[in-house]
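User: quick one - fold this with phosphoric acid mono(formamide)ester bound?
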Amino acid sequence: HRDLLGIGQLERHEILFLLDEAEQWVDLNRQTTKHSDALAGLTIINAFFENSTRTLLSFEIAGKRLGADVVNMHAAQSSVKKGETLIDTAITLNAMRADAIVIRHGSSGAVDLIASKVDCPVLNAGDGQHEHPTQALLDALALRHALRERGHKADDFTGLTVTICGDILHSRVARSNILCLTALGASVRICAPPALMPAEIEAMGAKPFHDFDAALEGTDVVMMLRLQTERMEGQFIPSAREYHHLFGLSKDRLQRAAPDALVMHPGPMNRGVEIDSEVADMIGRSIITRQVEMGVAIRMAALDVLTRRTRGIDGWTNDGSG
Ligand code: CP
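Assistant: Sure. Structure tokens for the protein plus phosphoric acid mono(formamide)ester:
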């Protein structure tokens, strides 16, 4: 591959390859001298047309820890506000001869469109309700590390049950995670209110639930997602109180899951709505901070792997099939 547009474009062995590549950066990021010069002389543009804290900062840190020059384009301060089209913006970025472009955009498919117009690798940092591939990869890496500490030997998730609960309809994180977790062997349960449940859950290999207590029964991992009210214009928006009552993860509710079940959330969290603070901060159970830590390693791996051809290193994957 030249680009990283979605988990849907990756084979299982390619997902595992990216996770394995990220392992070296987990170790480096824990050292005091955090630097590599693998990408020295390359320019990476982060073009974000939607708000971000974790993804934007971790791509910037990842690029800098690899020695690249990183520049950020915030749509709110760009000429997009003066009416420039997406394609003209892409042509403009291309003319600056970036070596990789990282894009977040509010429209599903916008990142694919830009990828078709530029000469360098494009990395999807979240496009509308479609995909957020580096989020699913960092979630898988965080889960792998937490399971390893508990004695889990396999590198994949065969035999594991993961329950994802929240606003699935609007969630690119849910979509990418369903694809990634099922590819790695996990059984995935999806829980959402009927109005926020997409039609294709079973076709994607996951099991839909509307009752959160039933979805939690015996699950090994619970991944909570926020209500994306910014994508609900004109739709019925449940009140925070009633949503919490039916779909919020409280300490009591977590007891339905397997003993020691792990708790995940991609952030940003709405504490007291989809997740209670005492669960989000539960030592030994919540791996939310570790997810953020793994985000830097995964983005370093993605930038490194996708720029290998530019740097005269063969292929996207080890076997050269990419
Ligand atoms: N999880 C995630 O994508 O967070 P940001 O929106 O802060 O980047």
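One thing worth noting: The beta strands are 43-48, 69-74, 100-105, 122-127, 161-165, 187-191, 207-209, 221-224, 262-264.
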